[in-house]
Write a structure and sequence with these properties.
15 helices; 7-stranded mixed sheet; 20 strands; 21% strand
Length: 516
């Protein structure tokens, strides 16, 4: 991953390939942001005018490149838009800094080193810039011919035909290298970005290389590296334990399912959080087969499990004073002679029976078993994360996830946390009248209900499997988990790592005693 350092060097004397400065959108044109004073001075105080001449306005994510002033060791200045100039006595918010740093990192692909001279008012600003820069520099090139692979094979590598390497090194100017708070902010950003980017890698990995067993192997290696306990239930253990939901979904695949438990223990911590992730490594829809045009990106249907995995490992790396357990419900949903059929009845781990009316409503089935199992440990709260319904995408679009809960205060807290860390979310209700639509003449409940409000129906189904008296929330990340549009800010095309930062901040706030 991109290396990151704090530097007190002047922009003019720093050996780098580019100097990144911020520009904001003012009432009368672009305004050079704090942190770039020395660069502006080298342009005789006319950097804003030069940028305006080049068409820059300071809009969020806007990137403008120009030759560096005479005397600078870096040949290039890159001005990145921060959006509107903040109101008097208020600085640039963390998300504006994250997005600007991310846009700059993406624009500097193929560059060895860049110095970021963006507004830094405190350690929080340092952390936001570091986080944005590291997330923006992400690329997934494991399956591309980048020259190095061809050279290893004895072929003519030349310049390589694949993608350019991401920005290799970032020096943050204006931060305080010896200040504990600034150093801690960078360490946090680095751990978080590394694990979030690993989650992105998992989401982007083709399903022929990432089945439940392979996912469990990745989790096992990471757990051992970072001192996290891990337990993997294979198909035999699942059958012995009566996990009918997970087994039913995985019945049609040659790659058997897994239930992975990751346990981070903080020693004397009094609070315990449980995170549950949907991990359908490929979702064909099963017998209720998805039509062409709806299955090409279904490798991303394990994004919830990837987010939970990343959050638990990040909590361990940060040494948070809260116990965190992650449950990864892993299966591949495929059609075959052994697959679950519409009309079949599954006996879940909880003992409840479920009539399967649609095998493409499989995520709720694996989550139900994992939620029941997680509830047995009586955690203070459970949060499940899933790319669960197309209905939620229809309701909230491709960048916002829905938040449902059995406790209004907990739902509000999660919504506020998500917004704080830069993950757009929206609180959604769980109307009790929709529960009746899942009544089954054959079983305790059906896995489908009314078509309208399908995302809420799915949440109501999951609620049935949460233990009594446990605060629970459901994050439906079907929209933002996989970006099929152009990259923006620090968000790449493909897997995004949605919900990782929300889960980590929830753990941090719980450790600090900010949540009851």
């Amino acid at each position: 991953m991109t290396a990151l350092t704090l530097s007190t060097a002047a922009a003019s004397g720093l050996r780098a390939d580019a100097i990144v400065v911020g520009v904001a959108k003012g009432a009368k044109g672009p305004v050079v942001a704090p942190g770039a004073e020395s660069v502006d001075k080298a342009y005789d105080g006319k950097l804003a005018s030069v940028l305006e001449t080049l068409g820059a306005a300071g809009a969020e994510g806007e990137v403008t490149k120009l030759p560096a002033p005479s005397g600078f060791k870096a040949p290039l200045v890159l001005a990145v838009g921060l959006g509107a100039v903040p109101e008097k006595d208020s600085g640039y918010d963390a998300e504006a800094l994250r997005r600007a740093a991310g846009a700059a990192s993406r624009a500097l692909v193929g560059t060895k080193k860049a110095a970021f001279a963006l507004p830094v008012e405190d350690a929080a600003g340092t952390g936001a810039i570091a986080e944005g820069a590291l997330l923006g520099a992400y690329s997934f090139d494991a399956y591309k011919d980048n020259g190095e692979d061809t050279a290893a094979k004895g072929k003519d590598a030349k310049d390589g035909k694949g993608a350019k390497a991401p920005l290799a090194e970032v020096a943050l100017l204006g931060a305080k290298p010896r200040d504990k708070a600034h150093k801690a902010a960078v360490e946090r950003a680095t751990a978080l970005a590394e694990e979030l980017n690993r989650a992105r890698d998992l989401v982007n990995t083709p399903p022929n290389d990432l089945n439940p067993e392979a996912f469990a192997a990745v989790a096992t290696a990471a757990a051992k590296e970072h001192g996290v306990k891990i337990q993997v239930l294979d198909e035999k253990a699942l059958a012995k334990g009566g996990y009918g939901g997970i087994l039913g979904v995985g019945a049609g695949s040659q790659a058997p399912p897994r239930l992975v438990k990751l346990s981070y223990s903080a020693g004397k911590a009094k609070k315990h959080l449980a995170f549950v992730g949907k991990g359908i490594t490929y979702d064909s829809g099963g017998i209720s087969l998805k039509p062409a045009g709806h299955n090409e990106t279904m490798k991303c249907d394990m994004a919830g499990a990837a987010a939970v995995f990343a959050a638990v490992i990040t909590a361990a790396r940060l040494g948070l004073d809260v116990n965190v357990t992650g449950w990864l419900a892993l299966a591949e949903n495929m059609p075959s002679g052994s697959a679950t059929r519409p009309g079949d009845v599954l006996r879940m781990y909880s003992g409840k029976t479920v009539e399967v009316l649609n095998t493409d409503a499989e995520g709720r089935l694996v989550l139900a078993d994992a939620l029941t199992k997680a509830s047995e440990e009586k955690p203070d709260a459970i949060v499940d994360v899933a790319t669960l319904t197309g209905a939620m995408v229809m309701a909230l679009g491709g960048r916002t996830f829905g938040v449902m809960a059995n406790d209004d205060a907990f739902r509000t807290s999660l919504h506020e946390i998500a917004e704080e860390v830069g993950e757009p979310s929206w609180p959604m209700p769980l109307p009790e009248h929709l529960r009746k639509g899942m009544d089954s003449p054959t079983a305790d409940i059906a896995n489908m209900g009314e078509r309208m409000g399908g995302g809420l129906v799915a949440g109501l189904f999951l609620k049935e499997f949460v233990g009594e008296g446990i605060a629970w929330a459901h994050l439906d990340i079907a929209g933002p988990a996989y970006n099929e549009s152009a990259p923006f800010g620090y968000t790449p095309k493909g897997g995004t790592g949605s919900a990782v930062r929300t889960l980590v901040r929830l753990a941090e706030r719980t450790a600090a005693g900010d949540l009851g």
